[in-house]
Amino acid sequence: MSLSLILTHPGGSHKDELLACCLLAAVHRVPIERREPTEADLADPAIAVVDVGGEHAPERNNFDHHQFPADHPPLCALSLVLQHLDVYEDARQFCDWLEPAEWFDTRGPNVTAKWLGVDRATMNKLNSPIDVTMLRRFAKAKRLEPGEPLWEILSYIGEDLLEYLRELRSRIDFVANHAELWDHEGNEILFLPRTEPIPDEPSAGIGRYLESIGKSESVAALVYPDRRGGGYGLSRHNDDPRYDFTKIEQEPDVHFAHARGFVAKTSASEIGRLKELLSRARV
C-alpha cells in the first residue's frame, strides 16, 4: 500500500525512529511529520505511525514497540519496519550495528554496555558528530518534504541500507550456487569459479556466505576470479596465518603478491596449478 505520510513523535530523536523513517521515506517518498498521532492517524493505513501510538499493527503501518512488556526480546521501531519490508533477518545477520541499536533503544546505555562487555564510558566514545547532527536536526524539524536537504539525506540513508541488504543477499545466493569447498592438504579452501558474465566484485559476499554456513573460522583461504584479468586471486580468509603468499611471488604466473602476504594474483586458471600455488604458499 502506498503511503501519504510518515508520522513520528516530536521532541528528542533516537536512531531507531530516524532510521525507520529513512527506510519508509526511501520506499514511499512522502513527507515526514513529527507530532503526536491522532486516532484517525492510527486508523489510516496510508499514514505510517512510527515509534509512537502504542500499537504495532503493520497491516495499518503502525510501528510502535513501547507497549511491549519489559522482558520482550529487544525490538525497536526500526526492527518493526525492517520486518515489514521483509529484510529483518538479513539485517540482523549482516548489519553488525543493528542488535546493539535494538538493545540501546529498549534497554538503555548502561544495560547495553554491560551486554557488550564494555564500560559505560566506552559507549560515549563511539558517538560521532554525524550522529549528533542528524539526530539534532531531525528533532528540530516539524515537517520534512521530499526535495528538502534533510529529507533527501534521510532518503539516501534508507536507499543505501536497502540496496546493501538486497545486493548482499543476491551476492550470497550467487556464491552459494557456484562456490566449492576444497579439502586441500588438511585446510579448507573456498573456490569460486569464473562465470560469464563475471561479477563486478567477484569476492564480494564470500565472507558473509561463510558466516551463514558456519565456516567463517574453518576456511583458511579463498580462490576467486580476478576481475582485472583471466586468472585468479588468492587470499587469506580473516588473515589466517596458515598461508603467506609472498612465498609464491617469484612464480612465473604470479604477477602480484602483497608485501604482507595476505593476497596474490595469478594468471593461472587450471585448478591443478591453483592448488599447487596454494601448496607453495603454506606456512
Brief digest:
The protein is α/β, with parallel strands linked by helices. It is built from 10 helices and 12 strands.
Q: How much of the sequence is in beta strands?
A: 15-25%
Query: What order do the helices and strands follow?
Result: EHEHEEEHHHHHEHEEHEEEEH
Fraction of helical residues: 40-55%
Task: Give the total of domains.
Answer: 2
What spatial order of strands do you see in the largest sheet? 4-5-3-1-2-6
Structural class: alpha/beta
Determine the number of helices (DSSP H or I, runs of at least 4 residues): 10
- The gyration radius over C-alpha positions equals 24 Å
Q: What is the molecular shape? A: elongated
The N- and C-terminal alpha carbons lie at a distance of: 58 Å
Unreliable segments of 5+ consecutive residues: none
Number of strands: 12
Average pLDDT works out at 95
Largest sheet: 6 strands, mixed
Describe, in plain words, how this protein is organized in 3D:
By secondary structure, the chain is α/β, with parallel strands linked by helices. It has two domains: about 5-170, no CATH class; about 180-280, Diaminopimelate Epimerase, Chain A, domain 1 (Roll), CATH 3.10.310. About 40% of the residues lie in helices and about 15% in strands. It is built from ten helices and twelve strands. The chain has a six-stranded mixed sheet. Strands 7-8-9-10-12-11 form a six-stranded mixed sheet, covered by helices on one side. Helix 1 crosses helix 8 (about 150-180). The longest helix has 30 residues, at about 150-180.
